[in-house]
């Protein structure tokens, strides 16, 4: 049941100085950060992360804007591990559209913009975080962003007290 997921603090989160707040949300529920680094991605890497699958699901315009956005500044990449972590992380992160994300989620607490605004300005929706959507994506994304030696094996206090 233990899973690893990729979490990115996108350029808006880094530039707004929210990295510490965001990281602490995951720490506080007892999830374990097993890898972390700051990366400024180029076009090729961005395309490997946001594959053609985005075009199929969201359209070419969204992918183009998303590629532009993810390259607009450094991101903080984390590999986060825990019991059924993929689903737990997406719960903590909240809905894709900040306008709809509930208070208490990262997006709901720190952003409010809408799809309507993104369409009007012809930009990607800036929603602070990327989190792997499912097991298949998580495996692909963790191995894309992290080499084996960048992922660490250790015990956090939570594991000793809770399990
Ligand atoms: P997804 O993988 O479908 O969650 O989309 C990836 C990212 O694309 C989201 O986290 C948003 O930043 C952005 N995005 C998705 N849909 C839209 C949209 N309709 N308009 C603008 N940006 C979007």
Describe this structure in words.
The protein has 163 residues and is of the alpha+beta class. The protein has one domain (2-151): Nucleoside diphosphate kinase-like domain (Alpha-Beta Plaits, 2-Layer Sandwich). The protein has ten helices and four strands. It has helices spanning 11-15, 19-28, 43-49, 52-58, 60-70, 85-93, 106-110, 115-121, 135-145, 157-162; strands spanning 2-9, 32-39, 75-83, 129-131. Strands 2-3-1-4 form a four-stranded antiparallel β-sheet. Helix 4 (52-58) packs across helix 5 (60-70). The two termini are 13 Å apart. The mean pLDDT is 97. The structure holds adenosine monophosphate. Adenosine monophosphate is lined by residues 54, 57-58, 62, 66, 96, 115, 118, 124-125, 127. Adenosine monophosphate (AMP) binds next to helix 4, helix 5 and helix 8.
